[in-house]
Each structure stands twice: as C-alpha cells, then as structure tokens.
Amino acid sequence: QTAKLTANALIPHVQKDSPETREFLHKVVELLVDYVNIQNDRSEKILDFQHPEDMKKLLNITVEDDPVSLQQLIIDCANTLKYQVKTGHPHFFNQLSCGLDVVSMAGEWLTATANTNMFTYEIAPVFILMENIVLAKMREYIGWKCGDSILAPGGSISNLYAFLAARHKMFPDYKEHGSKAIPGELVMFTSDQSHYSVKSCASVGGLGTDNCVMIPSDDHGKMIVSELERAIIQRKSIGQIPFFVCATAGTTVLGAFDPLNEIADICEKYGCWFHVDAAWGGGLLLAPKYRHPRLDGVERADSITWNPHKLMGALLQCSTIHFKEDGLLISCNQMSAEYLFMTDKLYDISYDTGDKVIQCGRHNDIFKLWLQWRAKGTLGFEKLMDHLMDLTQYQVKRIKEQSDKFYLIMQPECVNVSFWYIPKRLRGAPHDANLRAECGKLCPIIKSRMMESGTLMVGYQPDDRRPNFFRSIISSAAVTEADVDFMLNEIDRLGQD
Ligand code: ABU
Fold it and tell me: At 472, which helix (H) or strand (E)?
C-alpha cells in the first residue's frame, strides 16, 4: 500500500484517523523502538563509519521536485538511523551528553507532536507551567529562595544570557544607547579551561576577545584565584571596567571545579557579576555526596548555567540559565512586540515568558525534563549521579591496576577521566615528556581504529600542558563496570602495533 501512496494520503489531506496515517506512524515508531533496542545491544556496533563522499554515494539524500512514496520515507528513516552514531550505546564515552533516557525520549516525542512555541501561555499553557515548576525546583537546589530562569538553546547561549544580564545590571542604559552608555572599556574574566563560549560572549557582546582575560589554571584545571585578582587590578589600572567573572563548575575537558567561594569573594571585593558555568557539573547539585566541596559557594553566584542534557541525561537539548535577581531577564531583553505580548490578554501575562529572551520562537525543551523528573524523582537523579561517579572511580581503579598500559593524568573530580594508553614498546619507560609525546601521537591512530571498527568511541584532545590524551566520559545510565573494562581492553586491543 505505502509503495504507491505519498504524504497526500495522510492527515491533514484525508479525514481524521485515516488507516494510512496510523500505518505510516506505526511503522516509524517501530523503527524507533528497534533503534532503541539495538543501541542497548552490546554486540551491535556503535557506528558504521563512512567518509562523507562514500556516505553521499550510499544514501540518496537529495530533495527533488516530486514527492517520494511513503514506503521510500520509511526506508529513508531506516537508513538515517542505520548510519547514525548510537550515542546511547553503552560503549559510547565520547561526549558530555551520552545515553538515551527512554522516558525523556518519550517526552521529546510528545513535544514534537504538540509542536508548539514557548513564547506565550496562550499557546503553551501546560508547558509554561511545567517550566515554572521545574526551574523553581532547580533554583531551590542551587540554594535560592527566589530568582528567575529560562531554558535556552544550549549552554553557550545560556552563558550569553548571563553576560547580557550582567552588563544590563551595571549599565541599564546600554539597552537603548549602546556603548555610549558605558564610560570606558568593559573587561571580563574566566579561566583558561573555561568553555569557549565564554570568550565568544566578548566577541558577540562587542568587547572583543582581547577583553576576555583568560586566567591561568593550576595543574588540576582550577582557576588560580590570586591570578584573577592580579588581572582585575591590572586591568583597572589601565582604566578598564571589570564587570563579569565566569567560574566553571565542571570544565569540559578535565571536569575541574573552580573554587567558587574564593571567586565569589573577589567578585564582591571588585563589584563584578559572578557567573557560574555549571553546564556540565550542575547535575551534582542533586547529589549531596558530591555537591560538597565541589559546588560550595554556588549559591553566591548572580547567575548559573546548568544543562540537564548532560549529567542528568535529559534528551538534547535541555539547557537552563538561572538568575538570583527576579525581573532582570525581562528588563534586559524585553522588546514588547505588540503582536505577541499584548498587555490586555485574558490571563496573567507574567506567564508569557517569550519577552525575556533574545530569540522569538523557542523550542519546548521542558516536557522531556519534566516527564523524566516525574519518572525518577529527585532521589532517582541522586542515585544516577552516585552511579556515574562510582563507575568513574571504578575506571580510575582499573587504570591504576594496569599502570603498565595506562597512565592516569589526574584524579577526576567529575566523570571525565584523562589518561594515555602506553603501547607495548614503551612499557616500563619513565613517565616523562618523551613518553607523553609518544602516547599523544597514538591517540588519533587509536581513535581512527575505534571508528573504523565501530566498537568504541572515546574522545581525545591536547591541552596547553599536554599533548593529545584520552578523555572518557561516563554520563550514560546504561554503562556498567563490564563496559568500563571493555573500554580499557578495547583500547589495548586497538593499540597493538
Ligand atoms: N558543550 C560542550 C560539549 C562538549 C562535549 O560533549 O565534549
């Protein structure tokens, strides 16, 4: 049947509850459920890697003048999933967002079907209320009794919201008058381990990246607070206006937590806005065992980025930005577009969140998190954090037990484990710069073997102190101790000369 039919045979072109529509959707859902099952089958590969030019030949992905059949659409969906990297596979340790929470996924399916925009209560009443409830709950875990928050399209934009609010708080006339409203050059500070989006705020916000001072970090990737103070004093001495400090709670590569209380003291002393980028480490706010000492002082921040799509396992994407001061978001970003945000509506218009943000259309990122939170309860998130951190310690233990083959770079504070693989020919050699350089050269070779064999994915990168090293991430609820052992054994297998 579907071989001849096209989308013209589906709702809304035919009457409601048409058998063709049901059949088409059931087939798509079957494919999706099969994909979920395949992802959790450890005997299945994570990916079927193809180079871009080969992939173009393998798949017909052009869009043409004429419609294709429903049958072809089903084949297209199947092929798309066939060549997609299975980020929910228990052997995928490559990104900060790993795993596939089935409840959150169901939430995303519902979200897609409801297909609404999050700018007004008028068209998203239930979702707007859910957003209020969940964001208030998150502020409670930060340690605030009030404040305001919003879901943003990713941690980078969340950080940008913090930057904009900080500038608005110090120079409210900037909104109308631009740089004329600022009596000098603004300067901001973050650590050299912070996410690149912080530096991007200086570029996007008109400061220029020269005015985002990268404060050195220590060997564990934590900002050196005395260097922060020194830099603030130095920039003030040349007439600049320090206004914004971003600390990181869980750096992208090393998973380091900056000393928040000490940075808060400096911000108070010099009158700077204190932002905490906890996009990665924020999930640990829900885990009493790990919150202290990592996130001590987080409640002193003026703003906090926290991405549930990372450690908490909500589906991509789900990023939140929180402000201690209520009213700042709306005052900073409000444009009062009369066609959307009329002031004479029949309901309390404070529920129209759309004028708080710099975008107009806003995707519904709340339902999948709300549904997941209902399913787990806060205690479920706490258990998840404990599980991920326990597995990380298991990996550290296994690396130490095999110290002839693996070289642990540091004891992790989060679920990032940084290490080198030592090939047979170098075992027993001193752990010096020469060994590190040789191990570093192996990382891209082993990674390409991982991708070609399709059995494992672990990321690698250099940093300013080290040549390439592996960074494994355990942020998927699917991972077990056996999977951690598989990761290390597979690196050993792929690392054979
Ligand atoms: N936004 C940072 C994500 C980086 C990573 O997954 O490795």
Answer: strand 469-473
pLDDT digit string (tens) for 333-375? 999 999 999 999 999 999 999 999 999 999 999 999 999 999 9
CB-based contacts of 336-342 (< 8 A; 24+ apart in sequence): 340/119, 340/120, 341/120
Which 3-state string (H, E, C) describes 326-354?
CCHHHHHHCCCCCCCCCCCCCCCHHHCHH
Whether ipTM exceeds 0.85: yes
Task: Please compute the mean of the pLDDT values over residues 219-241 and round it to a whole number.
Answer: 98
In degrees and rounded to multiples of 5, residue 420 shows phi and psi of -110, 155
Nearest Cα residue to 272 out of 237, 224, 226, 233 = 233
DSSP annotation of 286? G
DSSP H or E stretch at residue 470: strand 469-473
Which helix H or strand E contains 54, and what residues bound it?
helix 52-58
Burial status of residue 150 (CB atoms within 10 A of its CB: 0-12, 13-18, 19 or more):
buried
Contacts of residue 11, defined as CB under 8 A and 6 or more positions apart, other chains included, come to: 18, 21
Question: In sequence order, what are the beta bridge partners of 320?
Answer: 151, 306
Ligand 1 neighbours by CB, cut-off 6 Å: 95-97, 155, 252
Write the pLDDT tens digit of every residue in 20-76: 999 999 999 999 999 999 999 999 999 999 999 999 999 999 999 999 999 999 999
Cα distance between residue 60 and residue 80, in whole Å: 10
On whether the CB atoms of residues 248 and 194 are closer than 8 A, the answer is yes
DSSP assigned state of 223: B
What separation in Å is there between the alpha carbon of 281 and the centre of ligand 1?
A: 12
Name the residue of 85, 93, 96 to mutate for ligand 1: max ligand atoms within 8 A of Cβ: 96
